[in-house]
Amino acid sequence: MRGVAALVAGAAAAAFMALGLPWDIGECGGQCTQAGDPFTLVWAFGLVLYMGIPLTILVAMLVAILGIRAVDPGEAAVRAALGETPGTAVRRAAWTGLRHGLIVATSVYVMAGAVHVALEQAHGWEPFSTGAETWAVRAEEGILVALSLSIAHVIAVRRPRRTPVERLREDAEAMRPLRLGRGAAIVAGLAATAAGVIVGLALDHELAEGFVVTNAAGIAWGACWILLVVLALAAVLPWARGYAPRFVALAAGLADGAGAPRLAAVLAARASSPTKATGRTFMTVGLIAFAVGALATGPTAVAQSDLLVTTTSVSADSTDLRDELAAIDGVERVVVGEALAGLDEWQRAIAVDPADLRGIDDEVADALETHPGAAVSAETNVRDITTDVFRPSGIVPLDGSWDTFVSLADVTGPTAGTTYLVYAHEGADREAIDQAATAVETDSTWSSSSSYTSGGDSTGALVTIAVLLGLVLTPVAFGAVKAGSREAATFAALGAEPRLMRQALTLEGAVVAGTAVAAGMSMGAAAHMVMAVLGAARGSLTGVITDSYTTLALESVPWAYLVIWGALILGIFTAVTALASAAIRLDTPAEALRNKETVR
């Protein structure tokens, strides 16, 4: 079981690291070699918060679902007889989990690094020349996964040890229905209180004057996230698993109507006596589905046109570069704007006429015209983009750009220079355009430029995550079939056909997994929508504009992707269940116990 735990932890580490690999490097312009923000303690702390939910789910799955053990029961008994104290056992378990976690995390880190370098070389980049900060991010991700595995081992060694007979009995023990009681009401009340704090502050302050208000809203937002996760995983999802047998019974009715009365009888019998093993299967698949629903994010901000290749800013005394840039092969339009002064080196504000963006960057144009006086930016605080010549009334969130766009009519003073926005034809060679624009000579006293990517192909990342998902679901499916095979063997001993029992195990697993996917993903999506709305209310304290909270909530969830990932989870689990059902021996509980004693 320790090997399975290490495999699952390694799969989780690989999933995290795969998300940060430069899969879109083929569409990358000059910004690929630009140094990003340095990896600071703030970044490290933010990564801990970001990974907190999936790592909590990982620990819960290892301990409560897979039931990992830091040491074998026999070894633990011998050590206890030799005088090993509980504290020593805990330290040994912590070190075992940490050692195994570091081994798998290091292995995954090396493989992810190899893929990173291979992607660079495949697209003409020098090794280690892109994404310098991602190496540190992947290292921290590996360390956090290793610590999570260590925590899981510590929790496991503190749990009461069960004998093989007790574990066998527990697999067949009836699943007790769970009711939402006082504990769930308390957690829900605390979450509602935290949400009320955010909403109250947003209603009371049009724009927060100090950090006290914004910090209070941030703390309340984080607390609400944690409480919603606890409520979903500790109360609502366990309550929902009680409905899984009803869907198995529904499948039995459908099988009877389809002319398979024997299969229907077996499924009906399984539905009438659900076991704890069924509950564990539901919880594991539901946890994974909840994580997908809670973490998947849809587009809610204004989308920068993917035809924008580069922006070039020059001083006001420079010669006009419009004709030279427009003459570059593949360029569709060059929009001329004004560069605003007063921001730091990492921020650029560009004043443009929205009419010039029509037909090429419509969403930015719409935002500038709909919200006169506001800025369209990825920044989250209006004070960060306030200058002497432009004081924005708010921020319209922007995705796909690190520049800030304002309407030229709202600028009240002199600007620092001219900015040229270069847009390409659909399908044009972006890299060639970027290089040609950079090579244009200018007599400017200063100049700066930035390049944009069109997004690239994320197929590699999706395939990698799908494979890792299969690695996580495989032991769960095999465990579910193994637990159900004992009751199936009893049916077989009473005259049922083994082939029929294997079909029943596969169909039951598919129904339970499908119910878990629907429940977990629905809860995750609901939690995500709530937090998206509260995040927007929190953002209003620093000037971020939200036109419709209802629209924001609905758009924050990528519904099509949830359907795809839900079908993928269900398909992988069903396929593995079918393979396990075909391969497993149908031993009765007595035979399984006798075989275990014979091996000993």
From TrEMBL:
Coiled coil (UniProt feature): none
Keywords recorded for this protein, A-Z: Membrane, Transmembrane, Transmembrane helix
Keyword 4Fe-4S applies: no
Transmembrane segments: 44-68, 101-119, 139-159, 180-203, 215-237, 282-302, 460-481, 509-537, 557-584
Protein name as it appears in the record: FtsX-like permease family protein
Taxonomic source organism: Demequina mangrovi
